[in-house]
Amino acid sequence: MLNFSEYQKLDGQVTDEEVYIKLERDALKLLNAATQMFYVKNNIDEDRDEWRVKMFKMALVAQIDYTNEVGASTEYDMSQKAVKSVSIDGTTVTTEGTFKDSSTRGIYNIALDYLYQAGLIFGGVDVC
């Protein structure tokens, strides 16, 4: 969806291309799920809505940079990193608020905002 050169032009912060490739793959999984696979079903290069394409790519950059910063690129990894302490007998789990407060289902809230702006997140009921 977004090659490394284009990512850098959009002010992406990851400097290692190999790291970028993994983070982009994981970010795409999350964003595709959130957008009901819009750009799996539709070719982004053929989309005439330039605003939607730009917002999706900006969401992708934001998600990649976020996951690079927190050191976890999947929802599961983030939930595991968020655990601060566990008590087996008392069944106590304490979590770090940072991940929970800045993301929703593993997607950085800023990336979600870009997707909302583009109309790629639909919260209603399809009547077709």
How does this model look, in words?
The chain is mainly alpha-helical and 128 residues long. It is 55% helix and 10% strand. It contains 7 helices and 4 strands. The strands form 2 sheets. A two-stranded antiparallel ribbon has the order 1-2. It is globular.
Short key terms for the protein model shown above:
mainly alpha; 4 strands; two-stranded antiparallel sheet; 128 residues; single chain; globular
Q: Could you describe the largest sheet, including whether it forms a barrel?
A: 2 strands, antiparallel
- How many helix segments? 7
Biggest sheet: strand arrangement: 1-2
H and E string: HHHHHEEHEEH
Radius of gyration: 16 Å
Helical percentage: 55-70%
Q: State the distance separating the first and last CA atoms.
A: 29 Å
The strand count comes to 4
* Protein structure class: mainly alpha
Beta-strand portion reads 5-15%
Q: Specify the overall morphology.
A: globular
Average pLDDT works out at: 82
Q: Which residues form runs of ≥5 with pLDDT under 50?
A: 83-87
Provide a concise account of the structure shown.
The chain is mainly alpha-helical and 128 residues long. The chain has helices spanning 4-9, 17-34, 38-41, 50-70, 75-81, 97-102, 109-117, and strands at 83-87, 92-95, 103-104, 107-108.
